[in-house]
Design a protein that fits this description.
Elements (H helix, E strand, L loop, with lengths): L1 H40 L5 H19 L2 H15 L4 H14 L9 E5 L6 E8 L17 E7 L7 E7 L4 E2 L4 H9 L14
Antiparallel strand pairs: 1-2, 1-5, 2-3, 3-4
C-alpha cells in the first residue's frame, strides 16, 4: 500500500511540476515586463494592463531602433551610460550577452567538448572562433589555436561557463542553435531529428 501511495504521488508530481514551473516562468516574465510601468504609475492599474502597455512600448522602441532617428537617439543614450562608472560595465556586459543569443546570432556553431573532464561530453556554443589578445604578462599567446566556447547549464542555459578549447578538440555538431537549446532546457529528454540540416 505504501508503494502504491508513493507511486501515485510521484506520478502526480510529474504532472504538476511542469505546470507549476510554466506558471512560475510566465508569472516572472509578466512581473519583469510590467514592472517599469507599475513603478511609474504605481499599482493603481492592473498588472496585466501594465504588461500589455510595456509590450506596446517595447514594440515601439523596436520600430524606432530600426530607423535612423531612433538609432541616433539610442547611440547618444549609450554614450551617456558608457560614461557612468559601474553602470557602464553592467550595461555593456548585459548587452554583449543578450546580443550573443539574439535572433541575429543563432548561427553560432553547436559543438561537443569533453567537459568537465575527459570521457564526459557537454554541448556548447562557439562564441568566438579566433581568440585575440589573450596574452600573459610574459607575452605568451594563450589564445593561439583556441576558440571560446560557452558551456550552458541545464535546464537554465542563461548561465554557464566560458572555456577556451583547442580548435582540434572541438567536435562540430549537425544540430542547429534552436535544437541544442531545446536539448539543454529539457535536460536531454527531447529527441533531436538528425536528418534535418542545420539552419
Amino acid at each position: 500500500m505504501l508503494q502504491a501511495v508513493r507511486r501515485d504521488f510521484f506520478y502526480g508530481l510529474v504532472v504538476v511540476l511542469p505546470i507549476a514551473i510554466t506558471f512560475w516562468v510566465v508569472n516572472s516574465v509578466i512581473d519583469v515586463i510590467s514592472g517599469p510601468i507599475l513603478l511609474v504609475f504605481g499599482y493603481k492599474i492592473h498588472r496585466i494592463v501594465s504588461f500589455f502597455v510595456s509590450l506596446s512600448i517595447i514594440f515601439l522602441i523596436g520600430i524606432l531602433a530600426r530607423h535612423f532617428v531612433g538609432r541616433s537617439v539610442l547611440s547618444q543614450l549609450e554614450k551617456v551610460v558608457s560614461r557612468i562608472p559601474v553602470i557602464s560595465i553592467i550595461y555593456k556586459s548585459s548587452k554583449q550577452i543578450i546580443s550573443s543569443f539574439s535572433f541575429s546570432n543563432k548561427n553560432m556553431d553547436v559543438v561537443l567538448v569533453e567537459y568537465p573532464r575527459k570521457g564526459l561530453w557537454a554541448l556548447g556554443f562557439v562564441s568566438k572562433k579566433e581568440v585575440v589578445g589573450f596574452e600573459t604578462r610574459g607575452g605568451d599567446d594563450m589564445g593561439h589555436g583556441k576558440c571560446a566556447v560557452f558551456m550552458p547549464t541545464a535546464p537554465n542555459p542563461t548561465t554557464g561557463y566560458l572555456v577556451y578549447v583547442d580548435v582540434t578538440e572541438v567536435v562540430p555538431m549537425k544540430m542547429g542553435f534552436e535544437e541544442a537549446m531545446k536539448l539543454i532546457v529539457s535536460v536531454g529528454a527531447v529527441s533531436i531529428n538528425t536528418n534535418q540540416d542545420k539552419k
